[in-house]
User: Fold this.
Amino acid sequence: MWIAGVMQGLMWRAVNVDGTLTYTFIESVRQLPICDSPRSGTLYLLDGGMAYNVAKTIAAGKWR
Assistant:
């Protein structure tokens, strides 16, 4: 995520010779899924594991 933030920041700061921005906001956002997909997949799996753990704890009645 840190690398994606640095990449997006550098894209926002890139300017042409005439001072206009090299990349539009949409172009910089389109590059983020490349960096976010491994993180999103990992969070999805961890959330599923946490939901399973909570369900098993409630079913066992050990949460009181």
